[in-house]
## 1
Amino acid sequence: MTHRVSNLRLRSFVFLFVASFSLLCSIPTYAYFPFITDDTGTQGEGGNQLELNYVFIKERGVGIAEDGTYYPGDYGTSNSFPVTYTRGLTEDLDVFVGMIRQTSPTNGWMNSAIGFKWRFAGNPEEGWSFAVKPALLTPVSRNMEASGLGNGKTNGTVSLISSFIQPKYEVHINARYTSNLSYSGSEEQQAQHLWGVSVAPVWVLNDQWKLGVDAGLETNPNATSAQVAYAQIGAVYAPVKNVQLGLGLMGNRALGSPSREYNWSIMSGITWQF
């Protein structure tokens, strides 16, 4: 039987980075890059933050046979550079804008986002606190979408965030929704509504070091399976006040998919509050 290779990829992972790193994650007062799960911290009134990151991804894509069945696709890699700026309007309210520059396999700007994070309950210094974080995801052109640089239609996302803070450890829990509208993806090939949950326990070793793990379950935008699971380990090091360096490793796999698509990634970055 003759086969053709689809340009489908594990778009949940790409969207996860778009939504959770440069576009949604503002890495607030308690800085947790490179983790996906966000916390409830904010910059405080008049505070600023700049985040510069690098993400390398290696993935196995999805092949589609002429009869419509899926099989393991080709391997590929990508390199991208997320940038996020955050401004604190009040003690409990941040606004942010994020962009991603991808350099390979296609060179260009990916979907950008503008949004805010509002901590509406709790003490961010100790115990439980709660926040909400909505954002607007701006579209790329149709040609850019066809090149794999993002979605050509406007989308939105919202996260509900809970954090539990103690002197020696922290636990962060997220529940999120992201719309996934595009010109190239039909309802038969990709999910239009993406849901996700995640949890990240973080251990505070001392004033400079934090270690943590992150795990979550997301809707798979591809029709190959219903969910994608990810797991992540990472570290944050603060060499000086108001500067954090992050390094992490993450794996991501579509559950029950006949194409067995998966990927792994290395991410690093620097965050500066001023």
## 2
Amino acid sequence: MTARGWFLFSLMGVVWGVPYLMIKVAVDEVSPSGVVFTRCALGAALLLPFALRKGDLLGTVRRHWKPMLAFAVIEIIGPWWTLTDAERHLSSSTAGLLIAGVPIVGVLLARFFGAGERVGARRVTGLGLGLGGVAVLTVPHLTGGDARSLAEVLVTVVGYATAPLIAARHLKDVPTLQLITPCLTLAALVYAPAAFLTRPSALPSGEALAALAGLGLVCTAIAFVAFLELIKEVGPVRAGVITYVNPAVAVAAGALLLDEDLTLGIGVAFTLILAGSVLATAAAGPRREVRRVPWSTRQTSRADGRVESLTGLPEERPGSTGQGDG
């Protein structure tokens, strides 16, 4: 990747490494619909002035409304609610581990979307190392969970893996602000009625309000701008590898801010995640081109479209079989 790609990748690894904690804090006092509404409304409010200043916002929506609607539903409206609802019963580390399956699903789905990214042995190895690192990091701390919550996170994984492919194929020419602002606005409007009906009876605590503000301003507005730029820079499959870094960031934050212990297992996990990220985001090598030449009666072998022309044979005479002297 380029230096810009690595910067965006590192930024997203951090910014999307903390939402699991913030969601866990917020959903203890606010309904899932309320959390998603607040997150989307704050993000849209922050980005809307910049999108309007760029101009032609409504024209962009009219020209690209179908893929934009698909992106909004598959990336935001569906997955954000299912993930938030699941975290009422799952630990944040469990959610982080399951979300780390996004790159694997993305590699599989890329075949159907024709993403054009070559997936070689090196990148497959990187994906495997990254998933192994996340497992080492989080499996000892898994707690709670039920079938419904696991299914909800699975829905989130499929959505997170699919939406970048839609953006890369159908929305790559749409400016980032013109894409994400209408999507967040739509999501906020969809969840506004449910958020109103399930509003808390009392003002949430300062911690919950801070978590909601962080989700909306940092983990939504700023993060989405950076993520869509990352997709344009490195492609949808490699962009999804940030989900390997996110759980590691959560553990690092706990050690630095909450004095949690750094164990040998954590060190091993960080090594695997780092190595997996480097391999999985590496550019594929150039394909070898096979020169194809027209078939003719002078050629005596052909395999897979590759032909070898034999030289030095006697010239054919009328009536001969073409095999030597006939």
## 3
Amino acid sequence: MSTPKFFCTCFALLLVMLTASCAPIKTLDVWKEETYAKPLKKVLVIVLTQEKSVREQFENVLANQLSDRGVEVIRGYKVLPGLSTKPDRETVVAKVRELGVDSVLVARSISKQEITNHQYGGVILGGSAVYSDGGWYGYSYGYTYDKQYDTDYFTISTKLYDVDTAKPVWSYIAQVRVSGARQGAVNVFVPAIVEQLEGSELVNTKRP
């Protein structure tokens, strides 16, 4: 391989690696019970988080996307509003029986990593001028500044439970980068969940 082609190839690989490392979602694991072949019909969606607004948005966005694919969805925050990050199993089981759902989809954060990023060497320049004694006299100023901002990396586990067997039949684990509002990360992550469900043949593709 010639030298120019070699460097072009290395540069292309570097770009791919950088793009992957900066991606907001990184899939860690997808699993499905081999014998499970029932598509979602009526599902209870539960997002376990201490932030009420995040839970409601997460469940709403997920419910809307699944509904677009012909799934009947019940939002957990509407029927189990006081659910904590460690819910009482008997309370959930009783509600599941009452609702008559055939599956339960549960999403929760299982770990969090916070990284502080620094941006050094920014420069702000300015100046002014005054007229005195027949001439203009000016001065300028400048100073540097440093910025820092936090990026959170959440590892999110999403599991699908079959009501008849009371066992998990599908799971998706992903690392989600959150560098701004968490609501924005929800809007990016939920389609990834649905895409994995489609790939596992548990939901249909979006209806036209």
